[in-house]
Amino acid sequence: MLKKGLTGFQIKLIALFLMIFDHVYYFFAFNDKVPLWFKWIGRSVAPIFIFMVVEGFIHTRNRTKYMTRLYIGSLVMTFGNQWITEWFQRNDNVALMANIFATLFLITVYLTIIEYLGKGIKERRIMPVVLGILGLVLPIALGIFMMMNLHIPGMIHAIFLLPTPMFVEGGPVFIALGILFYLTHDKKILQLILYALVSIALIPWQNFSLQGLFYDNFQWLMIGALPLLALYNGQRGKGMKYLFYVFYPVHIYGLYILSTLFV
C-alpha cells in the first residue's frame, strides 16, 4: 500500500536532478554565466544520497553485495577520473575529483563496525568491543599515515584505493552524517532536528555576514534537504537500483568533456 510522502526512488530522482545543477556550476563557472544558486541547491544532494545509502544498508538483503557495488563504483570513478583527464585536458585548474561512491562505501564500513561493536557491548563480550573500537579508529589512523607519507611512491594510488575519512568527498563531516542517520533511523523527529543542527553548525559564525553565508562558505545550505528527508515515507518505490551507479559517472564525465570544448 502506497503511503503518503515520497518514496526512496522519488527522492533519489529529485537528488539526481539537483546534482546536475551542482556539477554544471562546477565545470562551467569559468565563463561567469552560470549563477551561483546552481551551487546552493546542490548542497542538498550529498546528504540525500547519504541518507538513502543508510536506508539501503539497513534494508538490503545482502550487505556484502551492497557494499561491493559501492566499492566498485568508487574504483570506476578513481580510474575514470584519471583516464578522462588524460584524454580530455582543460587549460585551467579545475580538477576531476568527484567520487561520492568512496564516501558512501566508507559510511557502510563504519555502520558495519558500529553494529559489531554494539552487539559486543550488548552481549558484554570484551573482544568484539575491543575489535570494534579498533575498527572505528583504524581508517582514521590509516588516513593520517597516508597524509604524513605522501612522498612515498604509490601512496597517492593507495589513498584512492583505500577510502579514509580524510580523503573521501565530504570528509569526516559526511561520514559522521551517515552515522547520525543510522543511529536515529527509528527516531524521525530527533533525526531531523539533529540534521538541522549539524547544518546550522556549519554556518561561518566567526565571520558572520551575508558574504560569508552565501558566497564564502555555504555548505550549511544542505539544510535544504530537510523537507525531502521529512517527506520520506519509508518505502523503496520503483526499482532501477543501478540508475545512480550509471547516471553519476556518465553525467559527470559528459559535463567535463563538454566543458573542455569551451575552456
TrEMBL record:
This is Conjugal transfer protein TraX. The lineage of its organism: Bacteria, Bacillati, Bacillota, Tissierellia, Tissierellales. The keyword Disulfide bond does not apply. The keyword Secreted does not apply. Keywords: Membrane, Transmembrane, Transmembrane helix. It comes from the Bacteria. The chain crosses the membrane at residues 9-28, 40-58, 70-88, 94-117, 129-152, 158-182, 189-206, 218-235, 242-262. InterPro entries: TraX (IPR008875). It holds the Pfam family TraX. It comes from Tissierella carlieri.
